[in-house]
Amino acid sequence: MIHESEFRPVSSRARSRARTASQLHRFKLLLLKRGWVLLLGLALGLTVAWAILRLGPQEFLSVGRMIVNVKLSLPEGAVFSEEMSSFLGTQSALMQSGVVLNRAQVRVGTNDPDLAARNADWEKTPVSVRVSVVPKTTIFVLQAVARDPEYARAFLQACMEEYIQVKREMRVQTSDTTLAGLTEEILRLEKEVRRSNQEVAAFQNTNSAMVLQDQANNSGNYLGLLNQRLAVLRSELALLQALTPDQNAERLPLMPELVGMSAAQPSEAQSEYFKARQQILLLRAEQADLGQYLRPRHPKMMALGDEVSRRERLLEIYRQQNAEQLESRKNSLAVQIAHLEKDGAAWEARLLEASRKSAEFAHLKANAARIQSVHDRLLATMETLDVNKEISPESVTIMEHASPGFAAQPRLGKQLVKGGLLGLALAAGLLLLLDRMDDRLTGITELKDAFNEEVLSQIPLESQEKGAPSLIQTDDRRHGFCESYRNLRSSLVFMGEAASRPRLLLVTSSVPGEGKSLTAANLAITLAQAGSRVLLVDADLRKGALHERLGVAVGPGVAEVLAGRADWREAVQSKGNANLFFLPRGAATLKSGEYFLGKKAATLLKEAAAAYDYVLLDTAPVMAADDVTSLAPQVEGVIFVVRAEHTSARVARAAMDLLYQRQAKLLGLVFNGVRPNSAEYHCYRYSDYYRPYPEAQKA
After folding, report:
1. Whole-prediction pTM value?
2. CA-wise closest residue to 549 among 588, 589, 522, 530
């Protein structure tokens, strides 16, 4: 049973790694074959560089030095500070800029017209100026190279002076621009100062700061008293709303501290209510005492009962009065609370208004102070800038003037390195261009990317060893070579179902020299070694040479059989293996195309396929003659040979398209001539598996 993982597609990462290995192998082969191009490019580059140095005109060198000047820092400010993060690089670029060089040329022409006239071709051969910085210092080393020593010195001195002049002009321009901007900003701020002062004065004319502060304080104090009184009244109202009339009657004598001082003294109704209750309690106590000795109908008992009834009615009257007083008190408290709330809202509005005006006044004063401060600071900065512009020294000054010109020593090593690298780069570009134009296949990955057909086997390069016959022998020690053909044999033996496996096979290629004849012969040998009866037919009637590899006579053969001058069974020869039979080419002929289209060719193929287990036909290349395209549709399968580093992908594709047009059945590809040391070739390289067994050695 086949596991489903065998059908999983190859991951993109694995494909990418395979393509990378294929490209590296291709570059390796390119270097092995055409590495001389790189050596030639290197040699040409070195030669050209040496010739330019030796045959070029004599040049003279002048050297000068400049240094970053010590600069005083004034306490008023550092208006003329320069950006120091890339200072040295910026100054070096400025010293070599076109502005400085052009102005230096003009200065030389003005100071010494004769010297300038002698070097009138400056634009054609300009002076080369190089600037470098001494490591761990702020010293610039300037070098000028020219053909005239005096012109080199004058030009370098002019460059240093013009650089200082350009810096001075830049500083003056920047200072003037800054002064103009500061002046404009100060004028604007003066207007802002006047406007803010007018706003403060206008506010003070309509609002007194002291009055606003007093109003705010008084309003705050009075609002605090109102809130305190309002809290007391709300507490009393809440208490009264929670009490019953009886509880209200009893609250003042019992809990006078829970309410305000205005309600601490009991009312007349409350006093009478308490007196009536006390009298009722006394009468009932007396009634209880007399009830122990007197009967209920006794005049005293009846008189006490009447008195108790009268007192209870009076108590009820007092209770009603107390309830009315309670309700009246609640209403009074509600009215007072509403009045206090209204009064508090009015005073709160007054307080907010006073606070708003105070805040507005403070904001106006702070804004006026801020604008005045900015105005004063800018005014001081402008005064400092105006002074510093006159007294500030240059940041970079001349340390050593330009030296007299002396003969410049050519930098032979550096120029040779440049020339060699340029030559190598051009040679590498040429190699890459040739590689892009070369579509010959070098590895199995390129083969699979170029063709969708199945790869039946890879044959190592040993098959072309010294031009000698490379047919497989009985005790052949080229184990990897033999195993590759056994692998091709297995691919054919187990191809499809047993009943439909191809047995009448044709071996061809696109162009000559790709190893199709060798492949056909060795495949026939391995099939015969496996016990199959195999007939190898040399069907290349123009230049077939299998008889030479097998060491047999050239005829009679296929040509005579198709011409009707011989019987194919009598022409078949046996060589070496009892299961291997060979039908040679016969006499060379140019009529092979007509022969293969005739009936005798079809009869020969039919009878041979019936007499042998396998019939292998070695034919001419597809692009060499039309023989293959005439014969291929009559066989059961075609094996197409592609030779590594030899076969063009375009030509192979065109050849296979011709076979497909003739309805030929292409079984797959044989990749012949693969380098065993290739990173993509992993088959049959393990020598431990090809050592004879100890038992076999003893035998």
Report:
1. 0.50
2. 522
